[in-house]
Structures are given as structure tokens and as C-alpha cells.
Recover the amino acids of this structure.
């Protein structure tokens, strides 16, 4: 298991990590919220950020994936494997 995967697994199954909840936001609002959350987590030297986009239509999930894809503060990311979070949460490892 890689260091990044270990960080995500720890956060996913009980770790205390910062999170951003995008429920009821538009695509533009979600983009800004993710950017701000990444900046805050990076400044605080938090290794992992939990992004809650919800299940809905999938539009927010696509927005989040697009923002994270080539972001300078992001080392890697993956959707949650936790049963109650599948399809609704993405965990991000920051490039500290």
C-alpha cells in the first residue's frame, strides 16, 4: 500500500480530516468551495481532505473531478470505498 493510499484509508475509516460539503451548491460555487478548502488544508498542512459531493445527478462529482485532475496542491485522489460514502465522497491527498 502506498503512503497516499494509507493516508486515505486512515481518513476513510475513522480519521479526523477536514471536509468540504458541496450539497445544494451550483457547479461554480462547488468549484470555488473546493479551491478554498484545498488552500486551507494545504496552509494547515493537513495531508487529506474529504470532499462530499453527494449522489444526485453526478454533476458536482464531475466538477470535483475536473478541479482535482491537474491541481497543483493535489498529489492524488480517489472515491471513497466506504459503503455509506460510495458515489458521494472523494478523498484527496495534498501535495505537501
Amino acid at each position: 500500500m502506498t503512503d497516499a493510499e494509507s493516508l486515505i484509508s486512515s481518513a476513510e475509516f475513522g480519521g479526523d480530516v477536514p471536509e468540504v460539503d458541496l450539497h445544494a451548491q451550483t457547479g461554480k460555487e462547488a468549484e470555488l468551495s473546493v479551491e478554498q478548502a484545498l488552500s486551507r488544508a494545504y496552509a494547515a498542512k493537513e495531508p487529506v481532505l474529504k470532499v462530499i459531493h453527494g449522489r444526485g445527478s453526478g454533476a458536482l462529482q464531475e466538477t470535483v473531478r475536473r478541479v482535482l485532475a491537474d491541481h497543483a496542491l493535489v498529489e492524488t485522489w480517489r472515491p471513497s470505498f466506504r459503503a455509506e460514502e460510495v458515489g458521494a465522497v472523494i478523498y484527496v491527498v495534498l501535495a505537501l
Summary: The first helix runs from residue 3 to 12. Helices lie at 3-12, 27-43, 59-69. Residues 80 and 86 are 5 Å apart (CA to CA).
